[in-house]
C-alpha cells in the first residue's frame, strides 16, 4: 500500500498519515483499514486513529486518513471520542448509549434556552 503523505506533530505526539489502498472501495471496514495501517507502519492497533476513508469516483481506490500516535495513552487524550465511537459495532454503540443514559451524561448537552423578557 503506497503511503501518500506523512507529517509529524511532536507536540501532540502523533503523525498524520494518508494511505492509498487499491481495489478496496466498498470492501473495507473501518477496523480493517486501521489494522492495515498498523501492520504497514509496524505499530499497535491501539495507537492508530482513523479520521476518514474516502473512495475516489471511477476507481476502486480508497484514500485513508489516519493519526498514528506515539502511545495508546496519548491517543485517548487527544483523539476525538466521536471518531472512536464510529469504530464500534452497532450493538456496542447501543450499549454505550444505554450506559450514558443510566449515568445521566447526555451525548451532546444542549445549551440552556435564553430567557424571554
Which features characterize this protein?
single chain; 117 residues; alpha+beta; Alpha-Beta Plaits; 4 helices; 4 strands
Query: Could you say what the CATH topology of the domain at 3-79 is called?
Result: Alpha-Beta Plaits
How are the strands ordered across the major sheet? 1-2-4-3
**N-to-C terminal Cα separation, in Å?**
62 Å
Mean pLDDT: 82
Report the portion of residues in β strands.
25-35%
Helix content: 25-40%
Largest sheet: 4 strands, antiparallel
CATH uppermost class of the domain at 3-79: Alpha Beta
Order of helices and strands: EEHEEHHH
Overall geometric form = globular
Please give the number of β-strands: 4
Description:
This protein is an alpha+beta fold and 117 residues long. It has a domain at 3-79: Alpha-Beta Plaits, CATH 3.30.70.3370. It has 4 helices and 4 strands, in the order ββαββααα. The protein has helices spanning 30-41, 72-78, 81-86, 90-103; strands at 3-9, 14-21, 48-55, 62-69. A 4-stranded antiparallel beta sheet has the order 1-2-4-3. A hairpin with a 6-residue loop joins strand 3 and strand 4 (62-69). The chain starts with a strand and ends in a 14-residue tail after the last helix. The mean pLDDT is 82.
Short description:
By secondary structure, the chain is α+β, with helices and mostly antiparallel strands. The protein contains four helices and four strands.
Strand-helix topology:
Layout: E1 3-9, E2 14-21, H1 30-41, E3 48-55, E4 62-69, H2 72-78, H3 81-86, H4 90-103
Amino acid at each position: 500500500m503506497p503511503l501518500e503523505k506523512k507529517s509529524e506533530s511532536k507536540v501532540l505526539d502523533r503523525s498524520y498519515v494518508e494511505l492509498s489502498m487499491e481495489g478496496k472501495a466498498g470492501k473495507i471496514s473501518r477496523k480493517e483499514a486501521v489494522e492495515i495501517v498498523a501492520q504497514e507502519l509496524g505499530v499497535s492497533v491501539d495507537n492508530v486513529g482513523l479520521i476518514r476513508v474516502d473512495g475516489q469516483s471511477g476507481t476502486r481506490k480508497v484514500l485513508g486518513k489516519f493519526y498514528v500516535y506515539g502511545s495508546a495513552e496519548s491517543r485517548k487524550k487527544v483523539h476525538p471520542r466521536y471518531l472512536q465511537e464510529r469504530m464500534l459495532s452497532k450493538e456496542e454503540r447501543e450499549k454505550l448509549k444505554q450506559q450514558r443514559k443510566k449515568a445521566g451524561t447526555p451525548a451532546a448537552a444542549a445549551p440552556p434556552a435564553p430567557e424571554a423578557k
